[in-house]
Design a protein that fits this description.
This protein is α/β, with parallel strands linked by helices. The chain folds into 2 domains: 129 residues, Sandwich (Immunoglobulin-like); 229 residues, Aminopeptidase. Helix content is 30%, strand content 24%. The chain contains 8 helices and 19 strands. Strands 15-12-16-19-17-18 form a 6-stranded mixed β-sheet, sandwiched between helices. A hairpin with a 2-residue loop joins strand 8 and strand 9. Helix 6 crosses helix 8. The chain starts with 28 loop residues before the first strand and ends with a helix.
């Protein structure tokens, strides 16, 4: 097969070997890591050889900034802990693999040099039903790589949108339940911070589910999660999900890790172009970077918010977010009897950039800190923090409603 230089290479394979009756190929297929390998080619580039338990539809394409190869599958199981064992080339960095959306799994290969797909084929074994996926990638220049990067829309791979009842919504005035979008960070192929067997994406999802339940019990809040399961969701997608759910506010939950320093404790962040300190800047960069590496390019929300009305809306929303953060800090400190020296900070987190929804990001702790990790695993500690969040929301809700009633119609 000739090289597809300068073109987007997307392939759907539902092939059957000669003599095998046609059948629907369906998940779950799995990867045999012992018989799979990613290695250098003699004349440059790499080969990808994946041994699958059965054939499934797949596609492959590239993304730039940073350069990476992306392979999507119609549901595929893989022991992510063993993924690095198949890499035998310095061109490919740390693999990312996981659920991208319901029905999709995605493999992301960061690459240190631009490559182009020369050949991709899926061969089925007539006797065992197993499949061998072989991909050959050759060298190209950055200009050609950038021109070919991306994937064309295709209805076969379209994601079914989540349906919401989207109606014009006034600012809450205390006469109805407050709608809270709870955003568990990371998910799917993006695990977030990983320390031993613990992953940030799992810990914050547990906390988010508990928080939703505690808010619902009061009758004063309607809460929903931006992701209910272990699936990937882009940062801007989280904002859209909150907006479509008619959220009055958004609370994003994280429990990150810092390569340097000994940070610990809970911090509540609001949006700012200038980070409060180096740690805040590092965390914002880490979060945005993970979104890029997932294979979904970030859309700078600011580019779409250029009108005077949106600028004014953001001014009002930022003030409400800052007030919300302050009440949450007070509530959590009261409930847990602990507080950091600087519990309220600001940074340029993309997930906080909705111009019309007051938004905060709560850093529940750092997995690299032993005490913080113990706290996150402790149901009693989580309950205290959730009660603190509830107390903060109660105070903010009353004050915010009073301000709304004073505004001119």
């Amino acid at each position: 097969m000739n090289a597809f230089i300068g073109k987007i290479f997307v392939i759907f394979c539902m092939l059957c070997a000669s003599g095998v009756q046609a059948q629907e190929l369906r998940a779950l297929s799995s990867v045999d890591t012992e018989n799979s390998r990613i290695f250098d080619r003699i004349f440059g580039g790499i080969n990808i050889e994946l041994s699958l338990s059965q054939g499934i539809p797949f596609r492959i394409f590239t993304k730039s900034a940073p350069n990476r190869i992306i392979m999507d599958f119609r549901e595929l199981e893989w022991n992510s802990a063993q993924a690095s064992s198949i890499v035998d080339t310095e061109i490919v960095g740390d693999l990312r693999f996981g659920v991208f959306q319901p029905g999709w799994t995605r493999l992301v290969l960061p690459i240190s040099e631009p490559l182009v797909v020369n050949q991709a084929k899926l061969e089925l074994d007539a006797e065992t039903g197993k499949a061998q996926l072989s991909v050959k990638l050759g060298r190209t220049d950055q200009q050609a790589f950038d021109a070919a990067a991306g994937v064309q829309p295709d209805k076969e791979w379209a994601i079914t949108p989540v349906e919401f009842d989207v109606t014009p919504r006034e600012r809450q005035k205390g006469d109805r339940p407050i709608v809270v979008a709870i955003d568990p960070g990371h998910g799917g192929l993006d695990p977030g911070a990983v320390v031993g067997k613990y992953q940030e994406k799992e810990l914050v999802l547990i906390f988010a589910r508990e928080l939703r339940e505690n808010l619902a019990k009061t009758g004063r809040y309607d809460a929903f999660l931006t992701r209910e399961q272990d699936v990937f969701m882009s940062l801007t997608g989280r904002i859209s999900h909150a907006r479509k759910g008619n959220a009055d506010l958004l609370i994003s939950l994280h429990a990150d890790a810092l390569a340097e320093g000994s940070a610990s404790g809970i911090t509540v962040y609001t949006l700012s172009d200038k980070a409060s300190n180096e740690a805040a800047e590092q965390l914002a960069t880490q979060l945005d970077r993970s979104d890029l590496l997932s294979g979904v390019d970030l859309t700078d929300q600011d580019e779409a918010v250029t009108s005077v009305l949106m600028d004014l809306a953001r001014l009002e929303t930022n003030a409400r977010s800052t007030s919300l953060a302050g009440e949450l800090v007070t509530g959590i400190a009261t409930a847990t009897q602990r507080s950091r020296s600087r519990p309220q900070l600001a940074a340029a987190f993309t997930v906080l950039k909705a111009p019309d929804i007051p938004s905060v990001l709560i850093e529940l702790g750092f997995l690299t800190n032993k005490r913080d990790l113990r706290n996150l695993l402790n149901p009693e500690w989580r309950r205290y923090v959730q009660q603190g969040i509830l107390q903060g929301l109660n105070v903010w809700g009353v004050n915010d409603a009073a301000q709304a009633r004073l505004l001119r119609k």
